[in-house]
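Help needed: design a sequence for this.
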C-alpha cells in the first residue's frame, strides 16, 4: 500500500511534553509516524516528523488542531504535504 506523506515541523523554546502532545494529536487521528528527528540547541527545540496521511480524512482539521496545540505550548507547529514541502524547498 502506497503512503501519502506529510511533514510536521515544531519549533520553539524547549519544555516538557512537546513530543507527547504532538504525537497524541497524531494518534487521535490514527496517523503513523514514519520518521522523526529532534534536537535541542541551547534552549530551542526543533523537530521534524514524516507522517503517513493516506488515511487522513481532513488535513485542514488536523493542521488546525496541531496549530492550536502549538499555541497552547508556545511553539510553532506546521503540517505540509511532502510534495508541497519539497517544491517549496527546491533550489
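Sure. Designed sequence:
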Amino acid at each position: 500500500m502506497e503512503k501519502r506523506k506529510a511533514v510536521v515541523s515544531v519549533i520553539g523554546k524547549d519544555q516538557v511534553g512537546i513530543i507527547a502532545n504532538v504525537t497524541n494529536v497524531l494518534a487521535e487521528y490514527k496517523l503513523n509516524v514514519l520518521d522523526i528527528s529532534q534536537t535541542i540547541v541551547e534552549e530551542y527545540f526543533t523537530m521534524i516528523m514524516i507522517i503517513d496521511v493516506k488515511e487522513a480524512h481532513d488535513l485542514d482539521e488536523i493542521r488546525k488542531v496541531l496549530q492550536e496545540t502549538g499555541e497552547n505550548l508556545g511553539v510553532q507547529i506546521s503540517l505540509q504535504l511532502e510534495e508541497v514541502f519539497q517544491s517549496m524547498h527546491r533550489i
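Residues 10 and 89 are 17 Å apart (CA to CA).
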